[in-house]
């Protein structure tokens, strides 16, 4: 599903939009390196595993409504649950 399809269905597609934006940012390496030099790296502090789990849950909760709506439109019986 694309961002355009999600918009046509009236479903927020922020996870898809963020993924596209991240891909664009990753393609402009020179600009990223210049920004890091000017502003610093920042880095991740604290429990990285907990951060990754929080990010995974947030992504799942954002994408699930999109997948379920599209599944209904296509006549599928998609059942999504997050694995523990």
From TrEMBL:
Pfam families according to UniProt: 6PGD
Signal sequence region: none
Domain of life, per lineage: Bacteria
Example GO molecular function: phosphogluconate dehydrogenase (decarboxylating) activity
GO BP of this protein: pentose-phosphate shunt
Protein name: 6-phosphogluconate dehydrogenase C-terminal domain-containing protein
SUPFAM superfamilies reported for this sequence: 6-phosphogluconate dehydrogenase C-terminal domain-like
UniProt domain 6-phosphogluconate dehydrogenase C-terminal: residue ranges: 2-60
């Amino acid at each position: 599903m694309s961002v355009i399809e999600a918009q046509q269905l009236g479903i927020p597609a922020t996870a898809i939009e963020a993924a596209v934006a991240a891909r664009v940012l990753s393609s402009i390496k020179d600009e990223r390196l210049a920004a890091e030099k000017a502003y610093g790296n920042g880095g991740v502090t604290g429990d990285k595993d907990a951060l990754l789990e929080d990010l995974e849950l947030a992504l799942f909760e954002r994408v699930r409504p999109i997948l379920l709506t599209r599944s209904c439109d296509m006549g599928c019986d998609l059942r999504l649950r997050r694995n523990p």
